[in-house]
Amino acid sequence: MLLTAVLLCSCGDGEETVKVSLSKRQEITARPQRPAITYAYLPQYSHTESFQRHHRLVEYLTEETGMLFRQVFPESFADHINMFGQGKIDVSFSNPFVYVKLANRFGAKAMARIIEEDGRAEFRGQIIARKDNEAIQTLEDCRGKSWIAVDPTSAGGYLFPLGHFVEHGLHIRDFKEVVFAGGRQENVILSVYAGLHDLGSIREGSLKVVEKKIDISQIKIVATSRPYPGWVYASSPRLPQETANKIKAALLKLDYKGNPRHRTILEAARFIGFVPSDDRDFDPIRELNKMVGLELD
Question: What SS3 class is residue 169?
Fold first, then answer.
């Protein structure tokens, strides 16, 4: 009776009953994405950070080359390598260690190296600890301690510090443990800050990323590695050479000092320009890998 009353009230005078037929259905299909050149930033930071740093540059490449670019977001360093090998990444922006892997395995071709904010086309790794950790004052004090690194394929966050340790007589077996932070520089810093690990390794400049989250004055730099060739843009062998040449020319055209819009693009990406590059630039990385005994193939 209550249901009948509700139905009567809902169908007032002058209102027409609307009949709905469930026998008529229309399939809604997703609109396919337009073909685009895929661009991926090795995920050393969160996807949000990666997007904020690079979406202006991706837009610039689309405008400058006349070809559509789309940024894609690998979940990890290993995922970045696998996606490149599967043809899902046309333009890779990665550290030199990952680049050498891509070149050796899949034929990646270096196009340009970035110029860091300090004016160098090189960068370094850093070994950090809490400032109040009196047990770690020197590199030798790291022996027997817990070490958190960014990723097994991180250059500044693992390979460069590992090389620095080996050059000073410390090897993997000399640490209590070596764990990895899922490819995120922030995770290493936060873990050391929270006291979960005695020391961490990061790429130079990464402390700035978390300066609004924690008091970075409570983090000390125990040691810094020597510089190695910087981050590199590389093209897939599947990409036509003419297309790769246009991309390289567009990157090298960016003018930090003379063009205000270019300056905005580069400042967001946290570098100030490019230098031409080829595979020979990364021979020091191959030599470092031999010294520390890591696999490149």
Answer: coil
